[in-house]
Design goal:
Elements (H helix, E strand, L loop, with lengths): L16 H14 L12 H8 L3 H13 L3 E3 L5 E3 L43 H17 L11 H15 L8 E4 L1 H12 L6 E6 L3 H9 L3 E8 L2 E2 L12 E4 L13 H14 L2 E5 L24 E6 L11 E4 L5 H11 L5 H12 L2 H27 L5 E3 L5 E6 L5 H10 L5 E2 L11 E6 L8 H12 L2
Parallel strand pairs: 4-5, 4-7, 7-8, 8-9
Antiparallel strand pairs: 1-2, 3-10, 5-6, 9-10, 11-12, 12-14, 13-14
Helix pairs in contact: 1-3, 2-3, 4-10, 5-10, 11-13
Length: about 475
């Protein structure tokens, strides 16, 4: 639809209004801004928006039709011609792709892509029912501004879910619905005035989180990760670090769970240092093996932990829905901030998620996906061991990924680029580290691995790695 395009018009010039509308529309059709097959506004709508007569707009449309730039479909409206009769439009500069961990936003998930759920196993019928019910509710909802913290019913549902699944006991007033993890992170950084401060970040840790902190003027200090999770470096304890970001449930990207001793040490550090902890509960509800650890916020007796979760890994990253749980003493402060600068997003999407959760579908979906992912990881690891050279070490404990470690000095960034060009959505490991002598490797997501094609995909990856 092109209904939102308004050609510029001016009553102060010598060019008629009809010609101004005609030339404005002609220009954007030929340069590709209005693409072939796009629908134009009706005469009535465009005349109302521009403040001109319907006859003026109709005459402009007739001129476009005379040049075969548009076609009419009676009551179906006016459309940009499917085939333009003139010479090809001038080349428009290709939109630059952002640097970092980005894929093609218009395409589906690539094989081995991290951070996305299994699309083929999604409970589409229950999800459709939740949305249909949400739309019906929205039609009769009072036409007023919604609660900026998020729908009360969804916040109650999230609080109940956290108490049951993650051991976090909180009031709905402590829960804020956000635009995913990044939205929640931005809220915490602003409310707690953390810009320009120092933060411990996991080494290795999610690059985009580190880059987000750096854009906020925060100095990131690496905290090394071993088989027990993140360790606060003793040599940095006097550096005046104000907060730490940690993925305790499933460390990203190595997959281990933060050990009980490390959990207590981290909480003690925050308490003793008057510091804060931001808990990224990265796929914490999808721990596939061993005892499922509860969230770090469940052990927080001093009100030092901000717990952040999202529905991206479990339902759909396109929802852009997450949640933030703040210490009870800070709930009022956060309420004032989100009310002015960061209100919750789409009410319909929130209602749909609440319907899905209250109907019992969310827990059933999580239970099923844990079994599916465990099976897919097993199949992937077995296939990789057959296809890959023995010099490539494969780690798979924890997490929703498999890690391949390559020989030192390997350009894992270039290899990952070649793989992604072949629809294999692997990520390089080295950018997850701050140090320059970082390990080299690849990260393979397991969510969309399928038995029918895993062998061919692993063979293709092996061929890319073989040189």
């Amino acid at each position: 639809m092109a209904d939102s395009y308004l050609p510029p018009v001016s009553r102060e010039g010598h060019v008629s209004l009809t010609q101004q509308i005609f030339q404005g529309l002609r220009s954007v059709i030929l340069n590709g801004t209005l693409q072939q097959g796009a629908r134009l506004s009706s005469w009535q709508d465009l005349s109302s928006q521009l403040g001109v007569s319907r006859g003026t707009v109709k005459r402009a449309y007739d001129l476009l039709k005379d040049e075969n730039l548009v076609e009419t479909k009676g009551s179906g409206g006016t459309w940009v011609a499917a085939v333009l009769p003139l010479s090809p439009p001038p080349q428009v500069a290709e939109e630059s792709k952002p640097e970092g961990l980005f894929y093609d936003f218009e395409a589906g998930p690539q094989y081995f892509q991290l951070g996305v759920p299994a699309q083929d196993e999604f409970p589409a019928k229950a999800w459709y029912g939740a949305w249909r019910q949400a739309i019906a509710t929205e039609i009769v909802r009072p036409q007023i501004y919604p609660d900026p913290r998020g729908l009360a019913s969804l916040r109650r549902e999230v609080a109940g879910y956290l108490a049951t699944a993650r051991g976090v006991h909180c009031l709905p007033s402590q829960v804020f619905i956000t635009s995913g993890f990044t939205g929640a992170l931005g809220i915490v950084l602003n409310v707690m005035n953390l810009s320009g401060k120092k933060a411990f970040v996991e080494e290795p840790g999610f690059p985009r989180t580190r880059h987000a902190l750096e854009q906020a003027g925060i100095e990131t200090i690496p905290a090394p990760v071993d088989d027990r999770g993140m360790r606060i470096p003793v040599e940095e304890l006097q550096a005046g670090v104000d907060f730490a970001i940690v993925t305790p449930g499933q460390q990203a990207p190595l997959g281990m769970t933060l050990s009980p001793a490390r959990r207590q040490a981290l909480l003690k550090w925050a308490d003793d240092s008057d510091a804060w902890i931001i808990e990224d509960d990265y796929a914490g509800e999808l721990q596939l093996s061993g005892h499922v650890s509860q969230a770090l916020a469940a052990d927080d007796a001093s009100g030092r932990v901000f717990h952040i979760g999202s529905f991206s890994k479990t339902l759909n990253p396109g929802l852009r829905l997450g949640f933030l749980v703040v210490p009870r003493t800070l709930a009022e402060k956060f309420t004032a901030f989100v009310g002015h600068l960061a209100p919750a997003g789409s009410v319909v999407a929130q209602q749909a998620v609440q319907n899905f959760m209250s109907g019992g579908h969310f827990f059933r979906h999580l239970r099923r996906m844990k079994a599916v992912y465990a099976d897919r990881k097993t199949v992937l690891v077995e296939t990789l061991r057959r296809e890959l050279h023995p010099a490539i070490r494969c780690e798979f404990d924890g997490a929703l990924s498999v890690r391949l470690f390559l020989p030192p000095g390997t350009d894992d960034v270039s290899i990952a680029g070649v793989a992604r060009a072949n629809d294999l959505g692997v990520l390089p490991l080295s950018p997850w580290y701050q140090r320059k002598d970082s390990p080299r490797g690849l990260l393979l997501g397991i969510a969309n691995v399928r038995r029918r094609d895993v062998a061919s995909r692993c063979k293709a990856l092996s061929q890319i790695l073989s040189p």
